[in-house]
Amino acid sequence: MPYFRDDEARSIIRETYGQVESRTTAVADVIYTPGEIARLPRGAVELALGVGHPVAAAGLLPGETVLDLGCGAGIDTLLAAQAVAPGGKAIGVDMTPEMVRRARRHAEDARLSNVEIREGLMEALPLADESVDVAVSNGVFNLSTRMSRAFAETWRVLRPGGRLVFTDFVLNGTLPEDVLKSPAALAG
Amino acid sequence: MLNVGFVEIEVGGRRSVGLDDLVRYPLFAPDFIAFLRRVMPVDRHAELVFSIVVTARKPRRSGSADGAERSRQVS
Asked: How far apart are the first and last CA of chain A?
């Protein structure tokens, strides 16, 4: 039985991610290469909150259109945009307005013209049918209270033959009820 | 994912993630990490969760180019 209603869960996640601050690169340092980090704005690197490197695993090609589901402050969107240039573009979608603002600022700071950041839910993506070649996501699907809906939406926006590559956390066994009821655990 | 229709689903890159790894994330306040250390069995502190990499593909339409080829054709 879920401990949070959909709207409660989204509210907790928006509040947590909207308020998060970071002045270290501790997360990025274990995921991305020094060369990748050097090509990105410091703010995007400090706000890396992912669990892996789906962009590296996706084998992106110049000319492709990439969707980053739950782009946060934009680190994977920016790396994807670099990987698909020239001719391709990266679209980041996030439901937290503050993260959308941050990702747009980081795209400007990186002087990348092939990045678009949109506010929206991964369960109701603001994209047309069959409009992207690759969807990536980094530690975000587990935040959805309607994961099947999120996968269905990803399917809808992918072109036939399109790829989905995501990294995520999977529980190793059950969690105590006190943890399951914790808003901090939900947002993480 | 299977129900939605994805094919060629592969799960790899499994890596243990423990409480000491979670400390790096600014999402987790020190008091929440302390709470986890208190309520989680000690033998799970080093392997609280796993990170995984999942890849999958939306099937091609029969006789059509795949997404990358289609993108290159229109760019």
From this structure: 19
